[in-house]
Amino acid sequence: MTRRLLAPLLLGFLAASGAPGDVSAQETTDEGIVTAHAIAMHGEPLYPADFAHFAYVNPDAPKGGTVVLEAEGSYDTFNPFTLKGVPAAGSSLPIETLMTSSGDEAFTEYGLLAETITVPADRSWVEFSLRPEARWHDGVPITAADVVFTFDTLMTKGHPFYRAYYGSVAKAEALDDRRVRFTFVEGENRELPLILGQMPVLPKHYWEGRDFEAPTLEPPLGSGPYKIARFESGRSVIYERVADWWGADLPVNVGRYNWGVVRYEYFRDDTVSFEAFKAGQYDFRRVSQAKEWAIGYDIPPIQDGRMIKELIENEDPTGMQGFAFNTRRDYFQDPRVREAVALAFDFEWANQTLFNGQYTRTESFFSNTELASSGLPEGEELEILERYRGRIPEDVFTTPFELPKTDGSGNNRANLRRAAELLKEAGWVVRNGVLSSEADGRPFKFEILLNSPLFERIVLPFTQNLKKLGIDAAVRTVDTSQYQNRLDAFDFDMVVAGFGQSLSPGNEQRDFWSSAAADIDGSRNIIGIKDPVVDELIELVIAAPTRESLIARTRALDRVLLWSWYVVPNWHIQAYRVAYWNKFGRPEVTQRYGLGMFATWWIDPAREAALAGRQTDDSAN
Length: 621
Prior knowledge:
CATH topology of the domain at 320-572: Dipeptide-binding Protein, domain 3
CATH architecture of the domain at 320-572: Roll
């Protein structure tokens, strides 16, 4: 079933419960301080204060049953909030956040642990009032002291991401048992109240006396819909729905988290995992390989309806996936060299030969959104970029960014000739078939680090084209743990990296591209970007006062990143490729953003029984 239009059902729903943005419970003081049930980045929340449930859920969905999902590799911790260890799949399920987003708005947060949110007109601070009924799984009330403890712990002992994400918070303080206030440093940062709403809240009485930074296989205390029931270290983990979960009847949770049991089974690699799926060892599979999607499902369960193969369209931002350069390596510091390497990648041949033509080339870090740059800059975007003329590539002003193209035949000579010219300009010459530095004679060689052999069939033709330029590019595939350790320490030359984006970029951009993040192990600035212009553009994005300004500022940042050739862009598809055993029910309305499978689907008892009966009959035959 393809995605149905949201509008008809949503309009009918809102007619019964209030108009979009009708925040009748909102309170505003003479000083412009607003207290409400929700907060939007720009404009007003879609759902009113008295809404019954999100429009894309089934409020009468049955609870119960077991869903079995898959994970690859292994795990060694149930704490997903630190740099150390490999977290178990689903390890954030027991943890609740202050607020939660809806799946049909660009960026709006609704109260979860927090009953209300209070902000002044300039959003220079935010205050959350906790729900009096909110409880940890041991029955202890959740308090403002827990929130402050969490913030302090994440900032001092958590993953480096949090220090960048919450870097503009000056102070966190508990005003009383239920109210917590965050005060911000000077400067525009209108997104900060919302991203603090995304903060997971941890129990102070549990973690005090424990080493937060150390990997742990002791199931931690939480407050969410599930808790760890049992596990087999590194091989499986089982979560059970909390029978007396305090938040079950909140409007943001009605019709969600319907599984009685969630079990993750671990497999060595994707090939083994796929075979296990076809054998019925787990229920649902997101298909990442074009080849698997094209030819892997000509099997009896698909033909007789026991298994469903479906393309589910979405409106998600695709972000950027690409071969990412580590610019800490001296041979990747020259953008001409990076562009030359990019010219050696023949996407059209790969799409036609390896991907069955399923993909579109990604040409923006904010692909598939209005935030993506295109053509030449104009209006506010041009005004912003003019400030940096002479400090950014002149092509930003004169040439629309377009990736090199081929005819798909495998003949990439024109692009390779241009690559050779760029390399010569950058001081590299071919001697006896080896690209070498004119200055010191050292050969140009680097390693592409992978964590799955599945990407080798894509990377190896790329390295063959690089070899035609005299570049020795080796491919090395390592296990998940070693890969993550090397990524965190920036111990690589090139990796396949993804830079996911939202419809409302902001503080997380610091972790992706800022000079400060480049020197923090475990940050997402794996490229090692240290550019004062990029730093300033990030702060402009964060401080954008309107949606229109955010669009212009993000496009300016996008354009500078693209023309700096920090990645060799890969590709995307604007749909979810999924396969699943025919035991599920799902809402008639699909949320606009995100698959929503985990939160909104359910086990259909009749379908599950029918599937079990047919599986039994097949086994008997």
